[in-house]
């Protein structure tokens, strides 16, 4: 006898998608979660961070259109209250209700692999007849800095769930979490300093995107310290407190201080205390998987989402989870690319939006990535200056980049940076996934007057 057909470890959006898929396919499925069903995205990442950002964006957008009556500042209490509502006040009963309604059995506790298709949850060993799926996500990667372990610091969790606006905030790291939280709290009234080791924030994005975001942060009063690294952390009195001043010492001999320090230096797969060592893997490293999500060398073990290290994005993890669920239900061993049992897009068409003002929306490869792959490309760059953008905001500033594979005349990468460009990126995703040639794309006529008219200008600049 086995307890279940499928056991999913991790009840965040990725685990929910994998479990829902297998349950819908008639398989008895357990969803094991140590914290809150709904996971990081629902309570400490995607949803609360965007709820913090949106009011500031709305106010800024209104100010860019003459004739719209606006106030001078946000109402922090109202913003935080709305953010709390989006997290259901950190109560996961609604998510549990959904899981039960989807036919899942929710098992509370930390799951650990203890044998073939066996998972220990608080002393209870569950056995699966078909598969175990690891969807444990990722955790903050904390640097080894002298004094950091003794100081009180924020990670993304504290930054998205704080119930008061900090008087001042030092943010270490210029990735997505760093820039989004720097802008959100600056617009809510905090004095923010962002420390970036490189020339600009968002080092993985096209350089022009990082530059535009840096300009936007400065306009919101954020102090940017670029080209410096953190060398140590200290507190005002040598004692760590929740609201005491924290000082970040920098490689140029200077320092910056704030009431709080947010450490936003990346994330790593949550494979600690999971039992992966018995299968030859190292705790803290990603689980290597094929496109069906099957873990290398273990035919009954699957994984999806951040834990695989493939694309650390909620939507991409959910996509991979749906492929895993389909592969398990159908028994697919080597399904063809672009079928529902494989996460083919992980390699060619991963979309991402940085929800700052200006937004950065991208899909596919950057110019640097395309050249590194040896692809013969042509890069088309344009300012976003069309009728739709002029109507959208006075003084609209934005840029677009289109990267074309010259041999196939198809797109391999697109980046937009500018206010409200997020909704443009799905068209680019479809073009890349569908391998639409620029000649055919010419006949996808953008509506006038919208910002999407930039597509026409990009193709004209290409030479059509």
From TrEMBL:
Record-annotated membrane-spanning stretches: none
InterPro entries xrefs: Class-I_Pyr_Nuc-Dis_Oxidored, FAD/NAD-bd_sf, FAD/NAD-binding_dom, FAD/NAD-linked_Rdtase_dimer_sf, Pyr_nuc-diS_OxRdtase, Pyr_nucl-diS_OxRdtase_dimer
Boundaries of every FAD/NAD(P)-binding domain copy: 4-321
Top EC class for this record: oxidoreductase
Cofactor: FAD
GO BP: 2-oxoglutarate metabolic process
Pfam families: Pyr_redox_2, Pyr_redox_dim
Ligand binding (FAD): 50, 111, 136-138, 306
Gene3D superfamilies: 3.30.390.30, FAD/NAD(P)-binding domain
Entry keyword Nucleotide-binding: yes
UniProt entry tagged with the keyword Oxidoreductase: yes
UniProt family annotation: Belongs to the class-I pyridine nucleotide-disulfide oxidoreductase family.
The protein's name in its UniProt record: Dihydrolipoamide dehydrogenase
Source organism of the structure: Saccharothrix tamanrassetensis
């Amino acid at each position: 006898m086995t307890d279940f057909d499928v056991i999913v470890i991790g009840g965040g959006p990725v685990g929910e998608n994998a479990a829902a898929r297998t349950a819908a396919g008639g398989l008895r499925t357990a969803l094991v979660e140590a914290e809150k069903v709904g996971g990081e995205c629902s309570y400490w990442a995607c949803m609360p961070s965007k709820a913090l950002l949106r009011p500031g964006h709305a106010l800024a957008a209104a100010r860019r259109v003459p004739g719209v009556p606006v106030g001078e500042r946000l109402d922090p209490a109202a913003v935080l209250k709305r953010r709390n509502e989006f997290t259901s006040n950190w109560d996961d009963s609604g998510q549990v209700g959904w899981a039960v309604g989807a036919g899942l059995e929710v098992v509370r506790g930390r799951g650990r692999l203890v044998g073939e298709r066996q998972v220990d949850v608080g002393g209870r060993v569950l056995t699966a007849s078909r598969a175990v799926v690891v969807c444990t996500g990722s955790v903050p990667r904390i640097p080894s800095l002298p004094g950091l372990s003794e100081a009180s610091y924020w990670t993304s969790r504290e930054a998205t769930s704080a119930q008061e606006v900090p008087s001042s905030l030092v943010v270490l790291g210029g990735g997505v979490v760093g820039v989004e939280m720097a802008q959100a709290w600056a617009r809510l009234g905090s004095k923010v300093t962002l420390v970036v080791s490189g020339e600009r924030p968002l080092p993985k994005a096209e350089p022009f995107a990082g530059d535009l975001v840096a300009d936007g942060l400065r306009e919101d009063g954020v102090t940017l310290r670029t080209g410096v690294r953190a060398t140590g952390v200290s507190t005002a009195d040598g004692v760590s407190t929740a609201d005491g001043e924290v000082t970040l010492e920098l490689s140029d001999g200077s320092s910056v201080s704030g009431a709080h320090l947010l450490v936003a230096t990346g994330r790593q797969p949550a494979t600690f205390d999971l039992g992966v060592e018995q299968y030859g893997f190292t705790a803290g490293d990603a689980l290597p998987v094929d496109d069906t999500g099957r873990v290398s060398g273990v035919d009954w073990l699957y994984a999806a989402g951040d834990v695989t290290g493939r694309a650390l994005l909620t939507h991409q993890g959910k996509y991979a989870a749906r492929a895993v669920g389909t592969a398990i239900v159908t028994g697919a061993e080597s399904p063809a690319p672009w079928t529902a049992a494989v996460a083919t897009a992980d390699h060619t068409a991963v979309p991402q939006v940085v929800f700052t003002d200006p937004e950065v929306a991208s899909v596919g490869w950057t110019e640097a990535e395309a050249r590194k792959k040896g692809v013969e490309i042509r890069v088309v760059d344009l300012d976003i200056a069309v009728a739709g953008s002029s109507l959208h905001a006075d003084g609209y500033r934005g840029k677009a980049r289109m990267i074309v594979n010259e041999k196939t005349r198809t797109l391999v990468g697109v980046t937009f940076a500018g206010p409200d460009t997020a909704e443009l990126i799905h068209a680019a995703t479809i073009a890349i996934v569908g391998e639409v040639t620029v000649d055919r794309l010419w006949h996808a006529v953008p509506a006038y007057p919208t910002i999407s008219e930039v597509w026409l200008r990009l193709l004209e600049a290409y030479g059509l």
